[in-house]
Amino acid sequence: MAISRRNFIKNAAAASAFLALGVAPKAMAAGPGDKVDNWVKGVCRYCGTGCGVMVGVSNGKVITVKGDPNNHNQGILCLKGALLAPVIYAKERVTKPLIRKNGELVEASWDEALDLAASKFKEAIAESDPDSVAYYGSGQALTEETYLASKIFKAGLKSNNVEGNPRLCMASAVGGYVSTFGKDEPMGSYNDLDAATCFFIIGSNTSECHPVLFRRIAARKQNDKNVKIIVCDPRRTNTSRIADLHMSMKPGSDLAILNSMAYVIVNEELDDYRFHNKYVNFMTNDKEKVDFEAYKVFLADYKPEDIEELAGVPAAQIREAAMIFAESSATTSLWCMGINQRIRGVWANNLIHNLHLITGKIGKLGSTPLSLTGQPNACGGVRDTGGLSHLLPAGRLIKKQAHRNQLEEQWGMPKDSLNPKPGLHTMALFQAMNDGKVKVVLTLCTNPAQSLPNVLKYREGLEKCFNVAIEAFSDAISLKYADVVFPPAFWVERTGVFGCTERRYALVEQAIEPPGECRPSVNILIDLALRIGVDPALIPYKNSDDIWDEWRKVSAMTPYNFEGITRERLKKESGIKWPCPTEDHPGTDIRYVRGEDPNIPLDYPDKYHFYGKPDGRAVVWMRPQKPAAEPAGGDYPFTLTTGRVIDHWHTATMTGKVPEIARSFPNAYVEVNTKDAKRMGINHGDNVKLTTRRGDMTFKARVGDVCEPGLVFVPWFDPKLLINELTIDAIDPGSKQPEFKICACQVEKV
Amino acid sequence: MEDQNKCCKNKWVLLVVALLIIFGGSILFYTQTAVSGTKCEAAKHLKSGEEAGDCYTCHLKTTPKIAQDWFESKHGVMLVKCFVCHGLPDGTGSIEYSANPDPNYICRRCHDPAVTMMEKKFGMRAECNDCHKYHSNSVHHDAYSTTESKKKMDQ
Ligand code: SF4
Fold first, then answer.
1. Mutation choice for ligand 1 from A43, A45, A51, A238, CB with most ligand atoms inside 8 A
2. Residues A400 and A364 in one domain
3. Is A440 among the domain residues?
4. B71 in contact with A at a CB cutoff of 8 Å?
5. Are residues A161 and A178 in the same domain?
6. B148: left (phi over 0), alpha (psi -120 to 50) or beta
């Protein structure tokens, strides 16, 4: 290759810099000189946006990653996606099975590790009952992995203790969709973002948590300057940079604000009477059916002027937001953990749906309530395939005998042989480990020792319990508690399906061989199950392709229809949105609408049909305001909230391996409002101690106007400064999702 | 005669090599000592190893125009940070450090369709930046004139 003069000088300067600093360029550094042999289609490993990627392979190694032009992201990636390649080659990869001997994890053979793990499962089940074992999975596992693990535990071992980290992030959204519409998952898609004229973003820092969707929203606004963006968030994040209206609410006032917006819409007569009269039931909190007039009476408590103090938002802003919401031609709502991680997260979800149902802004292109999901396969893998303790695949419930019988038939089991008792939800599961009731747990692709709220409380259980982990990175702090570790093939080292926020399922194809003795998790699960003694007829699969085919059949004939999403199609197409009943069906953009949703016959008399409910009507729930479990006040005058930053993802076991990210963002910090900082003499960079009822921890301060006065924020990626030691483990009684987002704290300069 | 020629040739080769070493050495010396102010700042961070990738904080002081242009640009609004395209200044990143990133490798990661279209029309070019300013391709029209960030700027 000819080297131009400019390049020569550039390289010489770079080389001198290395000499001076005594560092050599990393072997993994790929550059313009490297030639890609082939591009393999996949999906980004990180967030629920689910961007399509093309993985560039050279000599059997991934050297670069670019966006898939044919997927919804149209080639665009955010900074994490664009720097994904080095994660695969992290020196911390677990490449051999490990077992704990004399307190240390040491290398072992596959046979030794599998036998040890299997014997512990058998022992626990023999000594007590199947409820003494559990599976704790992840919204990052493949759809096939979750389906298989759920089947092994529920059908093979008769334990319904099948949970996963989506309980910590998506459970309230599931509860919201199911209680309002009767079926889980959004009815709209990302296409709505290109057609909306109003975006109502509440409890979501879209810019940092779903960057490529944020770009799409920004592009929409740039193309049409009349598009309005409302952001409701106690932090003035980067998302608010493109907002026309930022409502800086007090944490915990979300339900009041949403009801207040409904009050304005109804009282200004901006509701769509024709729509809600025909397609909606109004229900009290006690599930009593009432009429629109009763709903109006309920809303009377939420006049903007009456709640502005509670909400911390001027009444005029609430009125303005409601008017923009209702008067725009097409309104899309977006929300995420700010709404879901509340002790009344399901209610908050219901109230967002209410706004769409009373204005009829639903089921039309650009009008939809779209819950953003956090992980690449939480919607897909876990929610749809039934990877939670109360679910069976495709929206079926364990407690319903008819649903169990359907599965027993499909799985070739004797009638009424599935365990009819729902298992323990996540927080109850970890409590049961504390109590010694759950004795053996298998975790897959998740890091609960960092991601649980009030995490120190649950470490006791993690220590007591025999812990079998399938985990790719040796520095995940949960491995401190593992007794057996199996090394999985990571990301593009095996094939499987991810399902993202918009019901789109796309194939992550194997691009390279896994290192060392790593194996695909489905094969690890099958081997382990066989050694525990699960009937081989239940798990007759060679690989994830076989499991996918079974899942398609199990989902067929239900409203969650995947039958037409064949492996062959997934190889060719960059994702397909269910329901998709046949191989020639293009996938569904809008559910519940005749002519769009294949679940509704074309000759159905009405345009809309919320078939998840017995009478085809969605529900407007009358949910009252509820404050946080631990509001600020008294000795703990500040509110502590946590969240993500764009650079890092979840517990940073992956993003921490990317040198660019690790060195630009090595530590967590605490964000303090300028006024509070001035009052307490805190300067940028000072040490600040946060104390909650669960403990204290010291961070460097970042002083600014992102947080409202009275609020502090700490990102949760940093295992060294683990803010989840301070968060609260109060849960939503409906969804059982914890209220990570709000707890009371003290702030002190040290 | 031949020997003498060879000897002469060898001397010349030696001389050229010596000159090259001196020349190279001086360049190295120069790059290590010149512009000491900014160099020191950077070196301090690089040695500490922490936040070497947090270019923006220092560039806001040392090259405020570039930093502000980026902040106002599309890349700034979308938080496409310095290291995404430039790598790490000490070359320890996962992509090669470069002040002028190679479009074929760097830009294509997100703008493959656009680069491919331009390549078809005009052949592969080295400098997308000549027309599409990486740092100042602002979010144009007056789409954002009423937004929070503009209101703040105008205050
Ligand atoms: S937005 Fe999410 S899915 Fe897309 S590239 Fe970034 S991290 Fe990956």
1. A51
2. no
3. yes
4. no
5. no
6. alpha
